[in-house]
Design goal:
Number of strands: 5
CATH architecture of the largest domain: Orthogonal Bundle
Mean pLDDT: 89
Number of helices: 8
Largest sheet: 3 strands, mixed
Oligomer: single chain
Helix content: 40-55%
Structural class: alpha+beta
Number of domains: 2
Low-confidence stretches: none
CATH class of the largest domain: Mainly Alpha
Strand order of the largest sheet: 3-4-5
Length: 191
Amino acid sequence: LFDEIEKAHPDVFNVMLQILDDGRLTDSRGRTVDFKNTLIIMTSNICVDRTISKLEEGEDYAEMQEMAQNELSKYFRPEFINRIDELAIFRPLTREQLVSIVDIKVADLIQRLKEKRMELEISEKAKHYLGEAGYSEAFGARPLKRVIQNQVETAVAKLIVEGKALEGSTIDVDADDRGIVVSVRTARAEQ
């Protein structure tokens, strides 16, 4: 995976040409790495602003690919572009997809808390809030991990350090007009 390939040093493209042409790469010591059964994925944000607005307008996908191809040709040499087999344009994430990503990201925290014999319950409202706060048109859901760390994990850690969340506690994550609200229910309080 070459993420944001447009930011790579120009020498990287010469290396990529060898890989894409010959299916192998030879280093300065003469060692060869076989790339014949390798899938190479490159991402780019070169025309993300234009494609998002066109996708929202309902532009035809084939027209979008042509527009993206034209934009890419302004940045990359023809011999590099001609070696790319497929160009895929991804639509912006939906709210439902963002909630699913929140579930995946929060699952790790839930597991870590289970190891401490604590539970974490997150409301749908909180999931939607985190999904919106952690999404950007330019970067997709990349900021989501940081948003969850800053707004949920930090608050949970504070409850644990302060001794408010103990073994057997349930930590509730909700959202209101001001943002994420994290509270704790102790096992005794539930009885």
